[in-house]
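job 3f2a | input accepted
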Amino acid sequence: MTIDLHAHSTASDGTTPPSELPRLAAEAGLAVLALTDHDTLAGLAEASAAADIELVPGVEISCRLDDAEVHLLGLFVDPGHAALGAELELIRTDRDRRGVRMVERCRELGAPITLEQVRAIAGGAPLGRPHIAAALAAAGITDAFTPEWIADGGRADVPKHVLATAAAIGLVRAAGGVAVLAHPRSVKRRASVSDTQLATLAEAGLAGIEVDHPEQPPEVRAQLRAVAASLGLLATGSSDFHGDRKPVRLGECTTSPEVYAALRESAVSVS
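job 3f2a | predicted structure (271 res):
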């Protein structure tokens, strides 16, 4: 059984409609796929209606860990959970405010992009940095995710509302789900989550770490696998598929059936 626990659709910043993801996953040889759009559960109903594989209801929540942003995967969550839905709505609303201001800042810095262009790229999804980056690329600015433009802390970056990671873990558990920290040491992200921080999150109820990820090289994966074992955390693997926005294929990294079964059992036990 081939399992991919991290994928995005056009409900957030992917380029594949939710209804198409299950078919693509099946064609890629997957038996299980988690739909984990950024800060929204909006694509789950459409994906579930089209699924002929096992679809895990999930979400990727933007969180704050000390002075850095990290992402938390909530897997097996109840899409109808009121508190989770309310917090995601708050995050999305602020995400749109932030996106508008970032476009303004880009224009102030000389980038020939417009808010209408970025909204067209987003296609109705909450505005995110990948949408702004696509507009910048169309204008010939290919280094969007750098301090010169929209990287964390960059000239056009704007702070946004985020949950503390421990609070997000509690919210996921309250919604009947299980929490996995996404790509904690991606080479493309500014912050790297330390062993000490992972231990603190484990005490807060974190169930797993995304170890096998396209942006984490083999030596980093080995380090994360060792710390996961020392903390009693599960080691997952996922593609973090975004369609055409990233050169990553569904199932590029996967989770073992044994780990998947343990995650599902943990989620059931807290629901």
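job 3f2a | The longest strand covers residues 54-65.
job 3f2a | closed
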